[in-house]
Each structure stands twice: as structure tokens, then as C-alpha cells.
Amino acid sequence: MIRKSLSASLLAALFLATPAFAEKATIGRPIEGGSLHEGHLDMVVYYVPVDGGLLEVTATFAPKTGGDPLRVVMGLADDDSVAFSMPGHQDALYAFSRSGDEVTVSTETDMHLRADATIR
Asked: Can you give the three-state secondary structure of 90-102, one letter per residue?
């Protein structure tokens, strides 16, 4: 009985510790838009090709409660990926990745960010 309870507790802990991407959008052509609506921010995203083989990805985040939108513009080379939270909204992680002409964006809203994270 103890082994069964321990196994169930371990399985539950692993399930809770695993990131759950609540929403995902894939964009396969320039100017084609995608959107995500989980969490406290709505986000729209698109890309355009730029010199050097980069895709310039523009993501605009709008708070559902009102307020000024936030915009992020980044260049992604093939096989690049990046993940971040927006200022004031650390409860959601936004992940962007590129493979060829496709850019995939996902959001994880059930998370606890580490307080010791450092950007260098």
C-alpha cells in the first residue's frame, strides 16, 4: 500500500513539474499571422524575411485588462529558439522557434519561474 501511494505521489509530482504548453501557433509564410490567447495577455505574431537569411519576427502582446501593448521584434535564423516572459507577466512563458520557413510560437501559463534566472 505504501509503495502504491508513493508511486501515485511521484507520478503526480512529475505531472505537475512538467511544463504544459497551453497554446501553440505555427506560421509558414511571410506576413501570415498567428495568435495566442491564454493567460493575461493576447498575442499576435508574424514574420518577414530580412537580409542574411533571418526571419524578423514581430510579436505584439496586449493585456486583457487594458493598458499599453508590448512589442517584441527579433531575428531568428534557421533552428533558432528563444523563450521569455513579458515584464509584469512572469506567470507565462512564450517560446519561439524556427525551422526552415516555419515559426512556431507557444505559451506555457502554468509555471513558476526561478527567481535566480539571469540574462547574460
From this structure: EEEEEEEEEECCE
